[in-house]
Amino acid sequence: MRIIGGQFKGYRFNPPADKWPTRPTTDFSKEALYNILLNILDLEEVKFLDLFGGSGNHCYEMISRGAAEATYVDKFGSCVKFVHGMVEKLGIEDQVTIVKMDVFKYIETCKSQYNYIFAGPPYALSTIPTIPDKILQHNLLAPNGILVVEHNPHVKFTHHPHLTQVRNYGQTYFSFFSPEVESE
Fold this sequence. Notes:
This protein is of the alpha/beta class. The protein has helices at 27-40, 57-64, 77-90, 103-109, 131-137; strands spanning 47-51, 69-74, 96-100, 114-119, 141-151, 163-169, 172-177. Strand 6 (163-169) and strand 7 form a beta hairpin. The N and C termini lie far apart (38 Å). The model has no long low-confidence stretch (mean pLDDT 92).
């Protein structure tokens, strides 16, 4: 894995492969996603939330590209430990808040709002379709904010009232949601 752009562009990192509990976003699909985000967000103004954070890939990318703060949430101790080490190596401890917690509990208890939320749940998770509604119901997304849910082709948000667009890169789909927009 590598950081695609910004001050840490090209930095490579490898989470331990043995019993790693996550599925990282591929560099190809991540690069495509950030090309889209650069056209719709001022990344330097973004307060970012990374749900199902895994390797921390998206937090490093956002900080590298100028985001002032990022919050990482994952329940797996091995992932959290790896991210603590990476944040320290990159010297961004004051910009990344690391939370070891179940994502759905975090959503229910969080009192903050974010301009950009990325949710990259395990593809086999049966509750993926509930993620946008839970985030919107608990008011985690700031007005004019963007939520992106990564999923496979088996999950469809076609009729969700807050869906703004869907992009796919092979078996990786990114569904974009906004609290302000209700599609027809």
